[in-house]
């Protein structure tokens, strides 16, 4: 039986696919109201799983998720609906989530209509307001999804989330499918919306460059675990974990500067059969015998800066 969150997604015209669930382990992440946390890692590291769990689309098999101080598993009735509406997801591919047979105003108005969240007479005005919020003219309301560009479709995906007046947006690779020139515009839109509404974001990307300017803090995930988390400026100026350093070394604009890091070698191991000890050890240029045996834990290495690496917490 679909859960209320899935029903809402379905009603919003989203195809409910069964995502491949990648393991997430021992993740302890608190996001403050109004904060933007960038969550970065390679494909398959579990970042989408973590985002979907935050949005209530996947239930963790252990541990808990709290929203505004309450364990979401205990929410019922109106409290649960408030959570489902309050936490909205923005996906990579807006195309797959927009019903091609519906005009944009129907797509945008649907959740309000079906859930009786606003009187019918108010819906057209709210649709127009949402279009304006995302920088689209009012006459877009009568178009179909195939009549607009990829960047505009992502704006519609964002507008649809705004219709239910959320406070927390989980954005999963929201610009990855867009041309580079359009990416910056959509990221700017996210930043404007945050300034206007005080939104909280979990902003997921495989690309450090995408989260750089929007994030207050950045968390780096590798094979289901957060291996480093710090203020965004610290991640870019004093990354401590060898994996973060390797990701930075692969960023084009960092490569032009003095190159001190070794790029990531090797394939990403399977999260289902992770390497022993530090799971990064087969790819790490600094791995020692200890790294193969003992898993490092996330520890404080500076103000608000944590990393999980033996080199940092017990220097040789
Ligand atoms: Fe590399 Fe060892 Fe640190 Fe893991 S614990 S990142 S293998 S040095
Ligand atoms: Mg993903």
Automatic annotation (TrEMBL):
<dbReference type="InterPro" id="IPR013563">
    <property type="entry name" value="Oligopep_ABC_C"/>
</dbReference>
<keyword id="KW-0813">Transport</keyword>
<dbReference type="InterPro" id="IPR027417">
    <property type="entry name" value="P-loop_NTPase"/>
</dbReference>
<dbReference type="InterPro" id="IPR017871">
    <property type="entry name" value="ABC_transporter-like_CS"/>
</dbReference>
<dbReference type="GO" id="GO:0005524">
    <property type="term" value="F:ATP binding"/>
</dbReference>
<keyword id="KW-1003">Cell membrane</keyword>
<protein>
    <submittedName>
        <fullName>Peptide ABC transporter ATP-binding protein</fullName>
    </submittedName>
</protein>
<keyword id="KW-0067">ATP-binding</keyword>
<dbReference type="Pfam" id="PF00005">
    <property type="entry name" value="ABC_tran"/>
</dbReference>
<dbReference type="InterPro" id="IPR003593">
    <property type="entry name" value="AAA+_ATPase"/>
</dbReference>
<dbReference type="Pfam" id="PF08352">
    <property type="entry name" value="oligo_HPY"/>
</dbReference>
<dbReference type="GO" id="GO:0016887">
    <property type="term" value="F:ATP hydrolysis activity"/>
</dbReference>
<feature type="domain" description="ABC transporter">
    <location>
        <begin position="6"/>
        <end position="248"/>
    </location>
</feature>
<keyword id="KW-0547">Nucleotide-binding</keyword>
<dbReference type="InterPro" id="IPR003439">
    <property type="entry name" value="ABC_transporter-like_ATP-bd"/>
</dbReference>
<dbReference type="GO" id="GO:0015833">
    <property type="term" value="P:peptide transport"/>
</dbReference>
<dbReference type="InterPro" id="IPR050319">
    <property type="entry name" value="ABC_transp_ATP-bind"/>
</dbReference>
<comment type="similarity">
    <text>Belongs to the ABC transporter superfamily.</text>
</comment>
<keyword id="KW-0472">Membrane</keyword>
<dbReference type="GO" id="GO:0055085">
    <property type="term" value="P:transmembrane transport"/>
</dbReference>
């Amino acid at each position: 039986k679909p859960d209320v969150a899935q029903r809402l997604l379905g009603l919003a015209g989203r195809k409910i696919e069964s995502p491949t669930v990648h393991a997430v382990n021992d993740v302890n992440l608190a996001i403050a109201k109004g904060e933007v946390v960038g969550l970065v890692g390679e494909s398959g590291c579990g970042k989408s799983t973590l985002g979907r769990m935050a949005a209530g689309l996947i239930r963790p098999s252990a541990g808990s998720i709290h929203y505004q101080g309450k364990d979401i598993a205990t929410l019922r009735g109106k409290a649960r609906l408030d959570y489902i509406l309050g936490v909205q997801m923005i996906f990579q591919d807006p195309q797959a989530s927009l019903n091609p047979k519906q005009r944009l105003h129907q797509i945008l108005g649907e959740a309000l209509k079906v859930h009786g969240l606003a009187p019918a007479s108010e819906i057209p005005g709210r649709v127009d307001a949402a279009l304006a919020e995302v920088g689209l003219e009012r006459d877009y309301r009568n178009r179909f999804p195939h009549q607009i560009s990829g960047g505009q479709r992502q704006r519609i995906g964002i507008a649809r989330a705004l219709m239910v007046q959320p406070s927390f947006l989980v954005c999963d690779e929201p610009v990855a499918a867009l041309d580079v020139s359009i990416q910056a515009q959509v990221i700017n839109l996210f930043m404007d919306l945050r300034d206007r509404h005080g939104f909280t974001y979990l902003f997921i990307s495989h690309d450090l460059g995408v989260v750089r300017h929007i994030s207050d803090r950045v968390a780096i995930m590798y094979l289901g675990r957060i291996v480093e988390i710090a203020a965004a400026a610290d991640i870019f100026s004093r990354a401590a974990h060898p994996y973060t350093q390797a990701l930075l070394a692969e960023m084009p604009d960092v490569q032009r500067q003095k190159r001190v890091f070794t790029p990531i070698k090797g394939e990403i191991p399977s999260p289902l059969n992770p390497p022993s000890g530090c799971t990064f050890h087969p790819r790490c240029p600094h791995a020692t015998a200890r790294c193969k045996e003992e898993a490092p834990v996330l520890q404080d290495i500076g103000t608000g800066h944590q990393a999980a690496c033996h080199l940092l917490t017990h220097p040789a």
